[in-house]
Amino acid sequence: MKIGIYGGAFDPFHKGHLSMIRGAIASKKVDRVIVIPTGMPCFKPARKVTLSPYRFYMVKAALKDEPKCEVCDIEQVFGEPSYTVTTLKNLRKQKVVSDKDELYLMCGSDILFEFESWYKPDEILKQAKLLCALRPGIDEGQAKNQAMHLEEVFDTKIKFFQIDGIEAASSILRTRAEWESSEELPDAVRTFIHTHDLYCEDSPLMNVSDEMYALLMKHCFTLFRELSGKRLLHSMNVCVLATRYAMRFGADPDKCALAALLHDCAKELPEKQQIELAAKIIHGYVPGKQILHSPAGAVYAAEHYGVTDQEVLDAIQFHTVGREIMTITDKIVYLADKLEPSRDYDDLTLIRKYAETDLDAALIECYCAIRESFAKKGMLIHEDTKKSLAYLLANRKN
Ligand SMILES: [Fe+2]
Ligand SMILES: [Fe+2]
Asked: Cα–Cα–Cα angle for 71, 222, 82, nearest 5°?
């Protein structure tokens, strides 16, 4: 089978990318296309690239119904800078493609002019041939001359295919205002960006330290393997929102970001394992099913993710029901978990509004809303939530 390999940061995925995929398939030069969102990019400064699982699931959403096309997660589990040559070799090694498949690395004509400066271009061409898109308006003669030059240098054959005129660059679509008015995004991408509040102007993660940013990226690769897409996206949303709250309320952005990203890290482990983990810090009883992952998560974060900061571990442990005296990190992770942008189970407007200016007021409102919804079901809120609420009310200044 002839397979087009289409890699990129896709930050965000736009209609220009879509026209590449559709054009390659329509040209019949390939039978199908494997789309590979980059994990850890080699070339762009890492901080400016949206966390890779967001980009991966954005592309998945955009191509959900696209025929003859699949989105491959090979770079999402590979926590090192992804060179094209490594990815191509891994595709074969991991049997994503068979040894018999012919691979065609899809690219724009501009790539022909920079290809020689890529990392190990000769080895890339041992794994795949280049399949180059020609857009209306580009100088075809120049592109073909350059292709002939590369064919000679590398003893390869370069194929071309035509695509329609859509020209878009992700780099010009990086601000919220621009994407909202842009026609360049598929509807699914627009919805995804809106749901997860991406490309927002305050870019909260710019406020964590370089070391923490690198750590968050590393943990995303592990979490990608351990959590479903929905839960990982939720965890990243909580991470971004918690960092925003940390800046707003004078907490430590590194601690809040880390605790928030890992707060549900044990939630998809088998129940038996969660019970064993929780038993290391909770003695004498087994926490209820909904709460179990919080103490289990604190232990798992320490043992599996190497977290040593007790404040971070506590925020993970107390994110479901709170505790009598909450630290600022506890409060922020607790609230970010309930208020992250994809949460739509209740009317969160009032709590979100309080969280703009007053953390304790938001927490009180949140506890009261939970108490009310529990009461409707004939249930009582957890004893620790009750204590936390009572403490906050008793210590309100006005
Ligand atoms: Fe949770
Ligand atoms: Fe959560």
From this structure: 55
For residues 87-112, b (16+ Cβ closer than 10 Å) or e, as one string? bbebbeeeebbeeebebbbbbbbebb
Strand order in the sheet with 129-134: 69-71, 32-37, 2-8, 102-108, 129-134, 159-162
Ligand 1: centre distance to CA 66 (Å): 34
28 Cα to the center of ligand 1, angstroms: 47
All structural domains of the chain, each given as residue ranges with its CATH number in brackets, are: 2-191 (3.40.50.620), 205-394 (1.10.3210.10)
Nearest ligand to the C-alpha atom of residue 292: 1
4, 137, 143, 157 from 27: Cα distances, Å: 11, 19, 18, 17
Percentage of residues of the chain with pLDDT beyond 70? 94
- The Cα 223–Cα 218 span in angstroms is 9
- Three-class DSSP category at 35: strand
Q: Give the Å distance between the CA of 320 and the centre of ligand 2.
A: 8
CA of 264 to the centre of ligand 1 (A): 5
C-alpha pair distances (Å), 77 with each of 61, 82, 220: 19, 11, 9
- DSSP 3-state assignment of 268? coil
Q: How far is the CA of 234 from the centre of ligand 1 (A)?
A: 10
Task: Write the CA distances from 308 to 119, 226, 270, integer angstroms.
Answer: 38, 21, 24
Q: What residues pack around ion ligand 1 (CB closer than 5 A)?
A: 264
**pLDDT tens, position by position, 61-104:** 999 999 999 999 999 987 777 789 999 999 999 999 999 999 99
What are the structure tokens assigned to 383, written together?
């004893």
The tokens of 258 are what? 């880390």
Model-level pTM greater than 0.90?
yes
